[in-house]
């Protein structure tokens, strides 16, 4: 039985879930949900997810939303002890820390800066940009000389989550050159998942299309 994913191609969290599923060989039945048209507010969808967010999955009647929870669930359920999210307690705690950093600090500052002017037509806010730069500076320090966020020679769901967050600056043509470790890591993860990175490439194009950002 395949898993239903309520999906928006332009959404970085949706793409993170799809990438992880593809990497562990899990089939997702994509159900497009046009949040720009308000489809997430339909009574049918609100019964599934009162927070009306994507991604949302249904797996044999089990409903789950929040991308980081979904990624953890998919690996634990269908690829236990995979290097993406291993059972080792300390390794897992490190991954959890990074996911929390993405959710509460990095992703929040990135979306707050870019969405305010790309989606809502406000002037670029230098204070929001500085907050985002502070978050990127944290990420730069956390990476140091490490190849991956959790510090070992294999990427994890934390790398996938943070990488998809940073597709927003890429889509907006915002340079990460000020953060060389972040830039190198971002490019490395993209190469490492090249076999499934069509998900990101198409998603970035769709993000630009939705927000009328030229692709070239």
UniProtKB/TrEMBL annotation:
Q: Which Gene3D superfamilies match?
A: 1.20.1050.10, Glutaredoxin (3.40.30.10)
Residue ranges of every copy of the GST C-terminal domain listed in the record: 88-207
Q: Where is the GST N-terminal domain?
A: 1-82
Picking any one GO molecular function of the record gives:
glutathione transferase activity
Provide the GO biological process annotations: glutathione metabolic process
Lineage top rank: taxon: Eukaryota
Family, per entry: Belongs to the GST superfamily.
Q: How does it assemble?
A: Homodimer.
| Protein name (Swiss-Prot/TrEMBL) | Glutathione S-transferase
Q: Which organism is it from?
A: Ornithodoros erraticus
């Amino acid at each position: 039985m395949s898993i239903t994913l309520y999906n928006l191609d332009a959404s970085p969290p949706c793409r993170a879930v799809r990438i992880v599923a593809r990497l562990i060989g899990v089939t997702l039945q994509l159900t497009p949900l046009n949040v720009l048209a308000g489809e997430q507010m339909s009574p049918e969808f609100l019964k599934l997810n009162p927070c009306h967010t994507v991604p949302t999955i249904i797996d044999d009647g089990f409903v789950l939303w929040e991308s980081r929870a979904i990624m953890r669930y998919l690996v634990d359920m269908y690829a236990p002890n995979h290097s993406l999210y291993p059972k080792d307690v300390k390794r897992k705690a490190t991954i959890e820390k990074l996911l929390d950093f993405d959710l509460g600090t990095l992703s929040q500052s990135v979306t707050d800066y870019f969405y305010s002017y790309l989606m809502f037509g406000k002037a670029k806010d230098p204070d929001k940009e500085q907050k985002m730069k502070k978050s990127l500076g944290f990420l730069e320090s956390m990476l140091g000389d490490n190849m991956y966020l959790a510090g070992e020679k294999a990427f994890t769901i934390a790398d996938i989550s943070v990488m998809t967050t940073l597709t927003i600056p890429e889509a907006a043509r915002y340079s990460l050159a000020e953060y060389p470790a972040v830039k190198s890591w971002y490019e490395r993860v993209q190469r490492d998942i090249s076999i499934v990175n069509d998900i990101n490439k198409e998603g970035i194009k769709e993000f630009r299309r939705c927000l009328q950002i030229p692709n070239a």
